[in-house]
Specification:
The complex is a heterodimer of chains A (about 240) and B (about 300). Chain A has two domains: about 1-75 and about 155-165 and about 170-235, 3-Layer(aba) Sandwich (Rossmann fold), CATH 3.40.50; about 85-155, no CATH class. In chain A, strand 9 and strand 10 (about 215-220) form a beta hairpin. Chain A is α/β, with parallel strands linked by helices and about 240 residues long. Helices cover about 40% and strands about 25% of the residues of chain A. Chain B has helices spanning about 1-45, 50-70, 75-100, 105-130, 150-175, 175-185, 190-195, 200-220, 220-225, 230-245, 250-270, 275-290; strands at about 140-145, 150. In chain B, helix 10 (about 230-245) runs parallel beside helix 12 (about 275-290). Classes of the chains: A alpha/beta (about 240), B mainly alpha (about 300). The interface between A and B is medium-sized, with 24 and 16 residues.
């Protein structure tokens, strides 16, 4: 589905990614774990064209998308739910959802059906549909960000730190929702997380990033048992 | 006898105040439109467009100089042709100057918009000549509303301003492109992740802003005639209007504009009318000292 081959990305003169390769297949959940500054978000931003990798190529459904503009990549069906949620604070919940479908030419009827579908998954958003997104709680904003991402019926969705700054009870719900999106809608999911335990638990494969390089990758079950991962990311 | 004289004086005073109110509201809308025109670009691109005074003036010159005098078009087609010409100009300026500039330092960006203004100014002088142009019969004359007699220009300004505001509101609240414009103003990163072509959206915003500039230029022709300095005072007061209303807020620009327009006209009753311009800027400084976030602006939490 998506293949990243040996990309290197720089911020000015600082190299943030060194020859990173990464792959996700149909209907998979793949997690990317690593410490702060390991390059997880840079990898996402490189895939989305928010930063241009200097070397390497990115292939989506057998077509190269390496130097496309972000909006073109979204049109091809990749959705990225960024770290920090980034909902539009001065737009209502409903308008935020509508903007999620910007890349699609939905008719008014399909659009409202799609929004209703989101309200079924996240009933809290329905209660708050006229409210400005900036007035929502952190958990509700994260739900809105996920729902907004689903609005365009993506073929691949990438979540960046969806659990960041949320109460533990809500974190569990969040991961459950992510798993159910994958199971019910058959959308492959890339999950970037600092919460390594949860990430390994729900993903089938995992990549460990360190200092901008892929340190290890493999089946999540096996990584969970690896002493290196245990001591560095799972707290012994 | 004396009662009759007093009543007559009261009625006279009342009429004067009403007339001042009408002209104050009209000028207030002009300042408000100026405030909106540069706030749109500020919100979308983060640039302060210091060339807006010259673009207002350019609109008036293209209309009066090119389309009415040289081509001999009648007023309505000339207005349409002017707006179309300005939109082409806006697209060119957007892709060559404004969009590339927004990632540069603020100083570079400010200097470049100032220079763009100077280029327009000098080009207009070279092409149209230094003398002022008048358009005979355009928005001149008086209108009688009941017993009140007001300049036709003021009534037209209020009417057109209300139409522009209504259209802009509809566009920004109801259309996909308008909503995308609000998204780009709030978060460019997230906007591109929605699939919005941020640069194209900025270009559309700049084109709308420039069109409003040119309409302002047309509206003030009967007040200042078509000359190079025609927009210097309104562009400055429009800027003040934005600050007084709350920088970055579109409704704030209108509120600030009306505030200045009405205050300066009423003040003209008390002070000599030559002090009129002073009043607007005194208001601006008082506002900056007392409530820097403006009438409708949000208080910043630091």
């Amino acid at each position: 589905m998506l293949k990243v081959n040996n990309i290197s990305t720089y911020y000015g003169k600082v190299q943030a990614l060194h020859n990173v390769s990464f792959e996700i297949k149909d209907e998979e959940i793949v997690s990317i774990i690593g410490a702060n500054g390991a390059g997880k978000s840079t990898l996402m931003r490189s895939i989305m064209g928010l930063v241009q990798p200097k070397e390497g190529e990115i292939v989506f459904k057998d077509e190269e998308i390496t130097n496309l503009k972000t909006n073109k990549i979204v049109e091809r069906g990749i959705v990225y739910v960024p770290e920090g949620r980034e909902v539009f604070p001065a737009l209502s919940v409903e308008d935020n959802l509508e903007m999620g479908a910007f890349s699609k030419k939905y008719s008014q009827r399909i659009l409202s059906n799609k929004i209703e579908e989101m309200y079924d998954i996240f009933p809290r958003l329905k209660e708050r549909k006229k409210q400005l997104a900036g007035t929502l709680s952190g958990g509700e904003q994260q739900m809105l960000a996920i729902a907004r991402g689903l609005m365009s019926s993506p073929e691949l969705i990438m979540f960046d730190e969806p659990s960041l700054g949320l109460a533990p009870v809500i974190v569990d719900d969040m991961f459950e929702v992510i798993v159910s999106i994958n199971r019910q809608q058959h959308i492959p999911i890339v999950l970037v997380e600092q919460n390594a335990f949860e990430a390994l638990r729900i993903s089938s494969r995992c990549y460990v990033l360190e200092n901008g390089e892929v340190r290890m990758h493999g089946l999540s079950d096996e990584l969970m048992k690896s002493p290196e991962v245990k001591s560095a990311y799972l707290g012994g | 006898m004396s009662i009759v004289r007093v009543t007559k004086e009261v009625v006279f005073l009342y009429k004067i105040i009403l007339q001042l109110l009408v002209s104050g509201i009209a000028m207030g809308f002009v300042y408000g439109l100026v405030g909106i025109e540069y706030t749109l670009i500020w919100n979308s691109t983060g640039l302060l467009n210091f060339s807006h005074e010259r673009i207002i003036m350019l609109g008036a010159y293209i209309f009066a100089g090119s389309f009415v005098l040289q081509t001999g078009l009648s007023v309505l087609p000339a207005i349409v042709a002017t707006i179309i010409a300005i939109i082409f100009f806006a697209v060119f300026v957007a892709y060559t100057i404004f969009i590339p500039l927004r990632n540069m330092s603020a100083l570079c960006a400010i200097m470049s918009t100032v220079m763009l203004g100077n280029i327009i100014n000098e080009s207009v002088r070279l092409y149209y000549g230094p003398e002022a142009i008048t358009v005979k019969g355009f928005l001149t004359g008086m209108i009688r509303i009941g017993t009140l007699v007001v300049a036709r220009a003021y009534v037209v300004i209020i009417f057109v301003a209300l139409i522009i505001l209504a259209l802009l509101l509809l566009f920004m609240m109801k259309t996909k492109t308008g909503k995308a414009m609000r998204c780009v103003a709030q978060n460019k990163n997230a906007s591109s992740l929605m699939g919005i072509d941020v640069q194209k959206n900025m270009m559309i915003t700049i084109a709308i802003s420039f069109s409003i500039c040119s309409i302002i230029g047309l509206l003030v022709i009967p007040l200042y005639s078509v000359k190079q300095s025609m927009a210097s005072m309104i562009s400055l007061k429009g800027f003040a209007a934005g600050v007084i209303g709350g920088f970055g807020s579109l409704p704030g620009a209108i509120v600030g504009g009306l505030f200045i327009g009405i205050i300066e006209n009423i003040a003209g009753m008390i002070f000599p009318s030559t002090f009129k311009d002073v009043v607007a800027f005194v208001c601006l400084i008082l506002m900056l000292l007392l409530r820097p976030s403006g009438i409708l602006g949000k208080k910043r939490i630091s």
